[in-house]
Recover the amino acids of this structure.
């Protein structure tokens, strides 16, 4: 349902968008891709239908990640869009997925606020794994 909001210039406008409904990634082999995200990355159970070319993973803190064979896009690590999954322990996850044979492209990308790594999924799409750094004030009492 659209609702009115007041812009910074004082004009009333219709608010047309809410949250991001889902992020979609093209795949060629749905069964392989669904298994990769469910088992290898550990996203847990999916909903939808592998047989019908659409599955979704509901993420714990909101949001939805979808896989589809119905996109006209080809899986690609260089197509422009990349999903970034927030993780609690990047080092542990990298150890785990490396042992499972996942292709790691970069494992220590640093910024002032986070650490990141990139890998490829079973279809060749790039995935960014993102861990926030603890703030310097956290843990002080």
């Amino acid at each position: 349902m659209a609702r009115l909001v007041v812009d910074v210039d004082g004009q009333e406008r219709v608010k047309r968008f809410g949250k991001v409904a889902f992020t979609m990634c093209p795949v060629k082999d749905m069964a392989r891709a669904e298994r990769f995200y469910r088992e290898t990355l550990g996203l847990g159970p999916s909903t939808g239908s592998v047989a019908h070319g659409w599955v979704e993973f509901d993420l714990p803190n909101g949001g939805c990640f979808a896989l589809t064979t119905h996109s006209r896009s080809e899986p690609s690590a260089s197509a422009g869009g990349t999903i970034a999954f927030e993780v609690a322990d990047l080092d542990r996850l990298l150890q785990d997925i490396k042992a499972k044979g996942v292709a790691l492209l970069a494992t220590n990308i640093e910024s002032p606020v986070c650490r990141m790594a990139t890998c490829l999924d079973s279809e060749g799409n790039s995935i960014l794994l993102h861990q926030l750094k603890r703030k310097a004030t956290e843990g002080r009492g």
Notes: Helices lie at 30-40, 90-99.
